[in-house]
Amino acid sequence: MVGIIISDSFLLCGVWELQLDGSKQLNSLSKIIYNEPITDCLHNESELNTILAPILRKASEEHDIIGQSVNVVLPDNIVKHNVVELESGMSRDDSWQFLHWSNKQKKIPNYKKYSIFGQVYMPGERNIHSCSVPSALIRTLKLSIIELGGMPKWMGPASSLYLDGTKMTESAVIYRISNRYNFYKIQNNYFAMGKVSFSGGVPRIIFSTDDDEITLAALGLVKSDLDDIPIFSPQKLGRQAKQSWSSSDIRYIDPFVDIELNQGNIFLAGVPDYDQNVFSMLIESINTDHSFNFFEEQGLKDFFFTSVLDSYQKTKEKFLIQNENEKEKDEEEINKEIVKEKKELIPENLWALIAVVSIVVGFVSFQYLK
């Protein structure tokens, strides 16, 4: 499996594989810097191709991409997230059409074409989480991967790895930008997002698509009878930030902690903690076959945590069975070798016995004749 993390100024590419025991091994990883940032040309396919094509070609020279499935992660600041409530009396299709209509009212220039993908958390079916992605970026990445012999499998925002792929049905992810934090959260099958800041250590909601009280309680920032949820931070938090979030259930996952590394082909120098963490999550995440996929046709998709967890459990059981079969096969081979060795030893032992008997008989005969 090949993973690619896209950023404004560089690309992180690596290859990993599943072991027979279900563990993962990272075989290669490297950072490749662009000649110029891509932020200003996300809607210009020609310029994107000029920047990204040689970078992806270099990645294919450093890593084995031909014939491999390729997963791509986009930073959330490239993706435009939105929420549409599923009002009673209004069908999902109507809500989806309303989302498209509201986007058209923003009078976005024609050259800035977006592909829109929606996800509904089931069985709650309370709102639509939508992502608008520059169409030129999707097309450039997809065609470039195909031209290099890879198979585009999944592309999505970094946040979905944490919200949908950690085996938790409720969680949040935060990104620090200056003295503010963007957050995305899923709770009770309800997606919400917003911004929070701290003033003198006191949390303040800048905006939230959910109720402020519910948001502060969910993030663990106030004492409340309402439930809080685990919060993932792909970035390492400094001392002051940790103090601000001290009442919250912050989860920082050390990159590659449970992944076997082929040290000779892994180059982490100059790779930010955030990108290491996201790549590690890409390897460990269980959602890429289920969350919305920017390589697919744009549209609306249902997301069931039960389907994700069932699929994960079946895969885990499959590897356990394969591992047991391999152990039995190894034991059978060992037993065959032991039997073979014993058979080979029998003639040697027999000749040794004959030799000893001959010596004894000869000695007795000599004594008798004497």
Give an overview of the whole structure.
There is one protein chain. With 370 residues, this protein is of the alpha/beta class. 38% of the residues lie in helices and 28% in strands. It has eight helices and 16 strands. The strands form three sheets. It has a six-stranded mixed beta sheet, sandwiched between helices. The chain has a six-stranded mixed beta sheet with strand order 12-11-10-9-13-14, with helices on both faces. Helix 1 packs parallel to helix 3. It is globular. The model has no long low-confidence stretch (mean pLDDT 89).
What's the short version?
This protein is 38% helix and 28% strand.
In terms of topology, how is this protein built?
Layout: E1 2-6, E2 10-18, E3 24-33, H1 45-62, E4 69-74, E5 80-85, H2 92-104, E6 114-122, E7 127-134, H3 135-147, E8 151-157, H4 158-164, E9 171-177, E10 180-187, E11 190-199, E12 202-208, H5 212-218, E13 231-232, H6 239-244, E14 250-251, E15 260-261, H7 273-284, E16 300-304, H8 305-369
